[in-house]
Write a structure and sequence with these properties.
mainly alpha, Rna Polymerase Sigma Factor, Chain: A
Length: 207
């Protein structure tokens, strides 16, 4: 009985740390489905946050995350480093989110007609935006501000949006972001720089 308890991934010392991601991955591969349930609980919130930022709405984010966990479970034996489950899962979430965005026809909105294309002069065109008519220093409610931010995020390229969400919003290390995006760290830095520059221009009237 004692040996079984010692090998049970869910049993831990009262003062010791819980099982690592790698422990849970290996337990899942050994046939312990409840170990994968713990991985879901551990990463559900982070994965949903990444998908929501990339897609702009919670319904799609939840659908993507559900599919991501299904794919992760089915392909868990292809994960070379069990301790890198987190970055691997977020890469699946990111790829599914970007694929969903690309599969949909662009929606034409008021912002599409008002906001200038990257590289254009902002001042004259932004002055025609209803948002620019607000008095300087007007404080937006949290919900309205979030809507403005989501709209601005939607104006970024997929690479810029992904890099900004993972690095600046989710605060993932640059190396991990590069791994998820399958690019160099320097490329991540460039995408983040361009994304921040673009966001600053798009949200100039609300800063």
């Amino acid at each position: 009985m004692s040996s079984r308890l010692e090998t049970d991934v869910n049993v831990q010392d009262a003062t010791g740390p819980g099982p690592s991601d790698g422990d849970l991955v290996r337990a899942t591969l050994a046939g312990r489905r409840e170990a994968f349930d713990e991985l879901i609980e551990r990463f559900q919130r982070r994965a949903t946050a990444v998908a929501w930022r990339l897609l702009g709405n919670l319904h799609d984010a939840l659908e993507v995350c559900q599919e991501a966990f299904v794919r992760a479970y089915r392909n868990l034996d292809t994960l070379e480093d069990a301790d890198r489950f987190g970055p691997w899962l977020l890469r699946i979430v990111t790829n599914l989110s970007l694929n969903l965005r690309r599969s949909r026809r662009p929606r034409v909105s008021l912002d599409d007609c008002i906001l200038p294309a990257m590289g254009d002069s902002h001042s004259e065109q932004l002055s025609t935006s209803p948002a620019s008519e607000a008095q300087p220093g007007t404080r937006l409610g949290a919900e309205e501000l979030e809507e403005r931010i989501q709209a601005a995020l939607g104006e970024l390229t997929p690479q810029q949006r992904t890099a900004l969400v993972l690095f600046s919003i989710e605060q993932r290390p640059q190396k991990e972001v590069a791994e998820i995006m399958e690019c160099s760290v320097e490329a991540v830095k460039w995408h983040v720089f361009q994304a921040r520059k673009r966001m600053k221009a798009l949200l100039a009237d609300y800063l």
